[in-house]
């Protein structure tokens, strides 16, 4: 039974269209779902779809309306409004739009006393198909010219079509790269990826010189790096023991951990800490930071505990796990609204493995293409841009591929085993239930050791903050 607040008689968008004599028609759909899903079930051309996104800043909320195939250029939006808008939680939509079904943001949100900004690209569309909040029904505005006077008074160019990507890098202005959609070039040739973070550049300079003094100088010049490293060592699920000194100084860290381990931990901790991710959710900064920190420690401890695994050093095990999921920040930089929905889907479907959700995720254009390629491939792209080693790039690319055979076979399968162990942690992929029998055999691991680690993981205690 349809609730009265969701009927056409009570819907403010339809009442407005009728009062203003704006031509429209209702389009029944076979399924209930997102705008894209409903349009697909009714064979509606996706180029006619118009979506509305609820954003928020410290100063308040805003609804932006744009062609559904476009992505929001948040930097352009900030330059125009002077406010730093981010996607709002969809759960708040119901309170603002009581005559709409749950999670729907209607395009004419000024009818609900919320500011609206229309994208200039809408002025070129001959037909609008929108979700006004009705059950299994879309609205086709057949003469949008009648809306243009309204749109022109509240419009600005703040989105990019699917072939134009805009995102902010760490030390350069917003980068935009355009390509011809009909081209079939590899995806890594279609993106202008973020520039290499400062910490990676600094560490590469210390790695090129064998003097440990350079690394000590780096830590002294950047006390925040030292503090983050010390916090990690105090709160790790499996601690790297440091004894014999009350004051943990940079030179003491290097002497006890070794320069390679210090470099490895810094690369992961600082890169994750500085990643501009949303704070909450399974794909938020807090969860991903904790996953990276604990996975690195589990890998370090497992290799040490097992007395070595196929000649993989403990520091190498730590290095290949701490940044394995760095593709998620890339997805966020490129596709903020889509990433927000992806994060919400993960939260709502905790019994589904992340790979299954990636394959089923519905988006437009390049967002759909890259997300369906998977976060592992996104990690590879970013690591290649940021000049990580071939070992780290290959492991990131194939850390969900149990059939992988190649030069770095042992390292890839070690990360597969680590991720299986991580399912016992609240920020791990709990739906990753496939027992890595093939990987265990390739590594020659004693299953009793894994059983012991599963118990240890269930008893963990962590207080790390990104």
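Sequence proposed for the structure above (466 residues):
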């Amino acid at each position: 039974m349809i609730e009265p607040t969701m009927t056409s008689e009570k819907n403010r968008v339809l009442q407005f269209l009728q009062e203003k004599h704006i031509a429209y028609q209702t389009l029944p759909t076979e399924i209930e779902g997102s705008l894209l899903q409903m349009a697909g079930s009714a064979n509606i051309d996706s180029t006619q779809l118009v979506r509305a996104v609820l954003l928020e800043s410290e100063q308040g909320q805003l609804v932006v309306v744009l062609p559904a195939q476009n992505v929001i250029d948040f930097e352009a939006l900030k330059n125009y409004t002077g406010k730093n808008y981010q996607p709002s939680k969809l759960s708040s939509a119901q309170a603002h739009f009581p005559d709409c079904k749950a999670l729907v943001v209607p395009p004419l949100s000024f009818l609900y006393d919320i500011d609206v900004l229309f994208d200039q690209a809408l002025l070129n569309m001959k037909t609008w198909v929108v979700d006004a909040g009705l059950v299994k029904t879309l609205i086709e505005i057949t003469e949008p010219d009648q809306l243009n006077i309204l749109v022109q008074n509240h419009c600005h160019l703040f989105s990019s079509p699917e072939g134009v990507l805009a995102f902010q890098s760490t030390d350069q202005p917003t980068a935009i790269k355009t390509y011809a959609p009909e081209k079939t070039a590899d995806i890594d040739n279609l993106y202008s990826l973020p520039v290499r973070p400062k910490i990676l550049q600094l560490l590469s300079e210390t790695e090129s010189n064998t003097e440990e003094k350079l690394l000590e100088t780096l830590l002294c010049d950047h006390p925040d790096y030292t503090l983050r490293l010390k916090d990690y060592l105090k709160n790790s699920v499996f601690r790297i023991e440091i004894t014999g000194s009350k004051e943990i100084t940079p030179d003491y860290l290097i002497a006890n951990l070794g320069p390679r381990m210090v470099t490895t931990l810094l690369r992961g901790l600082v890169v994750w800490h500085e990643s501009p991710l949303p704070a909450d959710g399974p794909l938020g900064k807090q969860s991903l930071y904790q996953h990276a920190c604990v996975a690195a420690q589990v890998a370090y401890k497992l290799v040490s505990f097992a007395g070595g695994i196929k000649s993989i050093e403990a520091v190498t095990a730590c290095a290949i796990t701490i940044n394995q999921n760095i593709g998620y920040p890339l997805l966020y930089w490129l596709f903020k609204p889509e990433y927000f929905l992806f994060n919400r889907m993960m939260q709502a479907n905790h019994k589904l493995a992340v790979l299954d959700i990636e394959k089923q995720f519905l988006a437009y254009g390049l967002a759909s293409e890259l997300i369906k390629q998977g976060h592992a491939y996104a990690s590879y792209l970013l690591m290649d841009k940021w000049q990580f080693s071939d070992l780290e790039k290959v492991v990131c690319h194939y850390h969900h591929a149990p059939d992988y055979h190649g030069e770095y076979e042992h390292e890839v399968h070690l990360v597969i085993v680590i991720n299986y162990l991580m399912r016992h942690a609240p920020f791990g992929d709990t739906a990753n239930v496939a027992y890595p029998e093939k990987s265990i055999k390739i590594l020659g691991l004693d299953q009793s050791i894994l059983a012991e680690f599963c118990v240890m993981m269930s008893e963990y205690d962590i207080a790390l903050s990104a």
